[in-house]
Amino acid sequence: MHHTLCKVDSIVALNPVVSLVTLTPQQPFTHQAGQYLKIVMDEGDQRPFSIATAPREDGTIQLHIGAEPGNSYAGEVLEKMRNEGEVTVNGGLGNAYAQLETSMPTILLAGGTGFSYTQAILHKMLEETESVEGHKDPIFLYWGTRSTADMYAYDELVALDKKHAHFTFVPVVEHPGHQWSGKTGYVHKAVLEDFVSLEPYRVYVAGRFEMAGVAREDFHQQGLILKNLFGDAFEFI
């Protein structure tokens, strides 16, 4: 598998536990929106993270790395990046990338930092439709987090919702504060509540394997054709 050395340009806190990491590959690096890479800790230890950006002209790539206290898996990656200023990666990997050959209405479903996967696809789809006149297929993004503080891209997504008539952002909070007036509970159940049938839709899912597995079964029961369901988790469950 091809190794690519990347310079660590910046590590910026998005909230107390999630960091935005910007990397500049020092050799050619190709990927598609929705793919992931593996951080090489050593040859026997390579840790996967979704690429949070569609391909960019300047070649930079970004990751959203969530490292709660006690999460050494992600914490050690950030520590390595800070200490060494560079990191070796493998990518782009995965077959659950944006399907742009045929146009369909789309639902993006993310739990926690799984949002990084859906962000890359969303930005690519919006970029593709900016030059399209007339009708544009609708895009829905459902993002579920435990609290409002965990929804680190909330303002950006609200702005995109206002800018693009065919895009709808639906935030879902599991444990809301008393001022929250939006949807609550499990994010995939919010989708089930809002769509009578999922048969016409293409769906992308990122989050914990348990959520992805339940969503697959429930969405299929609500009409989703499984060939139109994408997510890296489905390679393993």
Question: What are the salient characteristics of this protein?
Answer:
single chain; 237 residues; alpha/beta; six-stranded antiparallel β-sheet; six-stranded parallel β-sheet; 5 helices; 12 strands; 25% helix; globular
Summarize the structure.
The protein is α/β, with parallel strands linked by helices and 237 residues long. Helix content is 25%, strand content 31%.
Largest sheet: 6 strands, antiparallel
Average residue-wise pLDDT: 94
Q: Give the total of beta strands.
A: 12
* Tally of DSSP helical segments: 5
The whole-angstrom Rg is 18 Å
Beta-strand portion reads 25-35%
| Strand and helix order | EEEEEHEEHEHEEHEHE
Judging from the principal axes of the Cα atoms, what is the shape? globular
Cα(first) to Cα(last) distance is 24 Å
Uncertain residue ranges = none
Estimated helix fraction: 10-25%
